[in-house]
Here is the input.
Amino acid sequence: MSTEEAGGLVSYATDLHDMYRRTAAYVDKILRGAKPADLPVEQPTKFELALNLKTAKALALTIPQTLLLRADYVIE
Here is the structure.
């Protein structure tokens, strides 16, 4: 269960599916003979924004339309 589904208002975090995909590519390089010490350290490049409208309503908050349009997930 994600934070938003548990009642959190907003979540901005790395996209785990993208991280797993990038990890697989990293492992593939190692299995093909690359030395781990020679590979660059990677940081997340893709993030997800999730909003919980039910929590916003309970807190009497209005989420701006521009923020709703940018959200990857909107929980109602």
